[in-house]
Each structure stands twice: as structure tokens, then as C-alpha cells.
Design goal:
It is built from 14 helices and five strands. The protein has 336 residues and is mostly helical. Strands 1-2-3 form a three-stranded parallel sheet. Strands 4-5 form a two-stranded parallel sheet. α4 crosses α8, α10 runs antiparallel to α13 and α11 packs across α13. The structure holds tryptophan (TRP). The site of tryptophan has 12 residues, from β1, α8 and β4.
């Protein structure tokens, strides 16, 4: 049996943080090591453009995201790792798929509906205010990413489920029209193993709450952030509930089981918050210092990173070329 294709896109819209690491990056990397799957991971820079128009930021986020994944263990020799904008077939297919996408399907997409609802709540006369066509047709571009590579599985968070359903719908419209299985029907792979961790203020760690710890903060910065984690007013010597503590919740996802057990005991014995933070900083710094160094090397060596992405794009374009051959022939552009 041929290998199953696993594909996922990562949007470069910010500096990757610990929540991304344990919730998305680590599970995806683990999946990429499985032998019976062929993994394709890409930087979805043209998806980011729907909201991010600052050229320098888009450039920096894209490169640092690529460097982050490689520094954390993505092996570009085993995973086809590319930048979406380096594969022009994605955009060609996107137009073709748009011609098979009922407008009503886009009206029902969550992100668009949320924008309309916000306009409604704000008393905005034009319900489409602030909505560009990139945002509106975002699911079509995503369908192109997925279908172009004949993807079987798409590991994504629950918020992306609707996009996978839309992708399947579009693929079926196309296949039915031409009475051929041109596109593989993808399935979402929702991984529940990813951890959710709290951020500095105790709410879920998220860019939108501005409570994150960047993965590659330098040690001084990292220590400063750890010391900003919110704690209750219990005093040194007073027993503390580890399960209610942000410090402990972050600690347990980076430390070994034995360390976590010992840390739990220290909480029960009333460790001072200051000392608990010192422990957390130590395990974080130990876990991240190797990847941090690799990250810096990759960011500094522009040519090496370019080379990795170029070689990924080349591999992706091989698959893309095959799919587009079948698509062009199906729609009547070329005759077989
Ligand atoms: N929309 C996804 C997100 O916001 C990113 C993405 C773009 C993607 N294209 C994709 C994910 C294709 C999976 C497959 O996270």
C-alpha cells in the first residue's frame, strides 16, 4: 500500500510561543516521524496576507517560523517543508476551485461570519466592512493547498474542521463534474494529545491575550517572563495546589515525570513562589537552549534556510505538477 499523505499549513502571524510548542508543533513533529506517512508541512504565508500587510513582519514571521520548526526537530530530508508562495500551482488551482465553490458555502464560513457579526454588533452599515476577498475566499486557498498534494490526512485544531469539510465538498463537486477521482478526499485529524497551557496571566496562553512566553526568548528575557507569571498570595511554607498553579502547569509539559513528581511534592510542602519560578526557569532553559542555538544559526544563515525552502518547494512542485496535469486535462485545457 502506498504511503498516506499528511499535510498541514502553519500561518506566520506571530512569534511562536510555548503554547504553540506543546499544543501544535510537538504533536505535528511526532506525527512526521511515523513511517507509514508521507508528511508535507508548509508556511502558509499567503493565508497570513489576508490580515498581515506589513512587509517586514510577514517576511520575518515566515522565516522565523521556518527556522523554529527546523530548530525543534523537523527534518527537511524526511518532511517536504516549503513556503506556500513558492508553489505557484497552489494559486492556479485556487482559481479553478473557486469556479466550483458555491458562493453560499463561503457565506457560511466561520471567519467570514464572525467578521459580519462583529460589524453588526458595532452598528456598521456595511456588513462586509473590512472584509477583503482574501479573507472571504480563504477556505478556497486552503482547499487548493490540501487537494493539490492529494492529501489523506490534515492534522489541525478543532477550529479548522469546517475548512476541511469545505475542502471535501469542493473536491466532490469537481470529481463529480468530471466523473473521475481527480482529488483525494481529505480527512481532518484532530489530535487531542496536544497540551493546553496557561499563559502569564493564568488564561490560556495565546497571542490574542498577550500573555505568551516566546519559545526562543533569550535566557534573561525568559527568566523575566517566568517571574511575571501570576500567582496567588499564599506565603512561603504554606502548602500550594499544583493543579491550580500556572507555574506547575507549564513545568509538567517540559519536565520529566520524575521531576514533575518531585515538584508536586515541593508544592505540597509549601515551596515559595519565587523558588518555584526559579525551578520552572531552569527546566525551560534546559529544554530550550539547544533548539534556541540552532534557531539563531538558521536565522543568521540566510542562504542555508533559503536552500532548505527551495528544495522543499521543488519536491512539492513535483506532486503539484502531477495533480495539475490531471486537473488541466479534466477541465479541457489539454487533451490527453
Ligand atoms: N488555516 C490554517 C490555520 O489558520 C492554516 C492553513 C492554511 C492550513 N492552509 C492549510 C492548515 C492547509 C492545514 C492545511 O491554522
Amino acid at each position: 500500500m502506498s504511503q498516506q499523505v499528511v499535510l498541514t499549513g502553519i500561518k506566520p502571524t506571530g512569534i511562536p510561543h510555548l503554547g504553540n510548542l506543546v499544543g501544535a508543533i510537538e504533536p505535528a513533529l511526532k506525527l512526521s516521524h511515523s513511517r507509514d506517512k508521507r508528511a508535507l508541512y508548509f508556511i502558509a504565508d499567503y493565508h497570513a496576507l489576508t490580515g498581515l500587510k506589513d512587509a517586514q513582519l510577514l517576511h520575518d514571521y515566515s522565516r522565523s517560523l521556518a527556522a523554529t520548526w527546523i530548530a525543534l526537530g523537523l527534518d527537511p530530508n524526511r518532511v517536504v517543508f516549503y513556503r506556500q508562495s513558492d508553489v505557484p500551482e497552489v494559486f492556479e488551482l485556487s482559481w479553478i476551485l473557486a469556479c466550483f465553490t458555491p458562493k453560499g458555502l463561503m457565506n457560511r464560513a466561520h471567519a467570514y461570519k464572525a467578521a459580519v457579526q462583529k460589524n453588526q454588533e458595532d452598528g456598521e452599515a456595511d456588513l462586509d466592512a473590512g472584509v477583503n476577498m482574501g479573507l472571504y475566499t480563504y477556505p478556497v486557498l486552503m482547499a487548493a493547498d490540501i487537494l493539490l498534494m492529494q492529501t489523506d490526512w490534515v492534522p489541525v485544531g478543532g477550529d479548522q474542521l469546517q475548512h476541511i469539510e469545505i475542502t471535501r465538498d469542493i473536491a466532490q463537486y469537481f470529481n463529480r463534474q468530471y466523473r473521475r477521482e481527480i482529488f483525494t478526499l481529505p480527512e481532518a485529524m484532530i489530535d487531542e494529545s496536544g497540551a493546553v497551557i496557561p499563559g502569564l496571566d493564568g488564561r490560556k496562553m495565546s497571542k490574542s491575550y498577550n500573555n505568551t512566553i516566546p519559545i526562543f526568548a533569550n535566557p534573561e528575557e525568559l527568566r523575566k517572563l517566568v517571574f511575571r507569571i501570576a500567582t496567588d498570595s499564599s506565603r512561603p511554607g504554606e502548602p500550594k495546589d499544583p493543579d491550580a498553579s500556572t507555574i506547575f502547569q507549564i513545568f509538567r509539559v517540559v519536565a520529566t515525570d520524575d521531576e514533575t513528581k518531585a515538584f508536586r511534592q515541593l508544592f505540597e510542602q509549601g515551596i515559595a513562589w519565587k523558588d518555584a519560578k526559579e525551578h520552572l526557569f531552569d527546566v525551560l532553559n534546559r529544554r530550550l537552549s539547544g533548539p534556541r542555538e540552532r534557531f539563531r544559526d538558521l536565522i543568521d544563515d540566510t542562504a542555508a534556510l533559503d536552500e532548505i525552502l527551495a528544495s522543499g518547494a521543488q519536491k512539492a512542485r513535483q506532486v503539484a505538477g502531477e495533480t495539475m496535469g490531471a486537473v488541466r486535462s479534466a477541465i479541457g485545457q489539454t487533451v490527453e
